[in-house]
Design goal:
This protein has 276 residues and is of the alpha+beta class. It is built from 8 helices and 12 strands. The protein has helices at residues 15-25, 44-48, 88-93, 123-143, 167-170, 178-188, 196-199, 231-234, and strands at residues 2-7, 29-33, 53-59, 62-69, 74-78, 99-104, 107-113, 149-154, 193-194, 225-229, 237-242, 258-262.
Length: 276
């Protein structure tokens, strides 16, 4: 099963690019962030015409997440409150459309768009930490379902120095501060692993290049788009790859898609029957 994540920075503006990429890569599941469109205007037909069922959770001009799948989307859950009913903080934080999950072929796929935080002195930074703390409760509640878990999306955090093009200058700032990193680690716990790092240990692998300051031309990027798997999925992962070439297209998203290939579902071998 091929599962992809992509912050498209407006699904309607990048629709042609998304469709072209789908035709080449043919993912089974694609999770989009920053769709920037109210649900009635989501271009659902474009995905349906390519054999995908799609669920979306969006808002005009900001945020927004969507999941498109070739197989049925089951038990779709919207927002942080989708796993934390009655949690007043989750209700408040879910006013921004940033979380969508679904059960796909027995895998719980959780698509997230973590707040950016703006700057360390901004109220948006405090909001980001609050949001990550709520995500920790969300994932803890989800773990009680004992479903194989894939959480993926734009996390707006570079967890390690090797995830930033200039760690000496940028570590400690927004998207690379210790409180952000620790909050995400706390949310992930011990059971969720960064599948990209299973296959690639080196630096210079980026998924986001700022539109400003010629970041793409200088290849000054960050790896902030992640895919985390629970152990039963991690053991079946075959590859994980950042499709960097999409960032070089005309009028691209500032993010590139990331795709994991998992041997799933696992085929059970028929037991040999012996007559006595």
């Amino acid at each position: 099963m091929k599962i992809a994540t992509w912050n498209v920075n407006s699904v309607r503006s990048r629709l042609d690019q998304i469709q072209s990429w789908i035709e080449v890569v043919n993912p089974d599941v694609i999770c989009l962030q920053e769709t920037k469109v109210d649900d009635p205007l989501f271009p659902q037909e474009a995905f349906n015409n390519r054999g995908y069922q799609v669920s979306f959770h969006g808002q005009k001009s900001y945020n927004g997440v969507a999941i498109a799948s070739k197989t049925r989307l089951e038990d779709v859950r919207f927002g942080l409150q989708g796993e934390l009913p009655g949690d007043t903080q989750a209700d408040k934080l879910s006013e921004q459309k940033r979380v969508l999950s679904a059960l796909i072929d027995g895998i719980r796929v959780v698509n997230v768009y973590v707040p950016n935080g703006s700057s360390l002195k901004s109220e948006k930074y405090n909001y980001k930490l609050e949001w990550l703390n709520c995500l920790q409760r969300y994932l803890k509640a989800q773990s009680h379902r004992f479903e194989p878990l894939c959480i993926l999306g734009d996390f707006n955090i570079a967890l390690e120095s090797r995830d930033i093009h200039n760690p000496e200058r940028l570590t400690g700032g927004i998207m690379a501060s210790e409180p952000e990193r620790q909050a995400l680690k706390n949310a992930l716990g011990e059971d969720l692993k960064d599948v990209f790092r299973v296959f690639e240990q080196e630096t210079n692998h980026w998924s986001w290049w700022d539109y400003r300051s010629g970041a793409w031309a200088r290849d000054s990027g960050w790896r902030i788009d992640h895919i985390y798997l629970s152990n039963e999925l991690l053991n079946q992962a075959k590859s994980c790859f950042i499709h960097k070439e999409t960032r070089g297209e005309e009028k691209p998203s500032d993010h590139a898609p990331v795709l994991v290939d998992i041997h799933w579902p696992i085929e059970e071998k028929d037991e040999e029957i012996t007559d006595f």
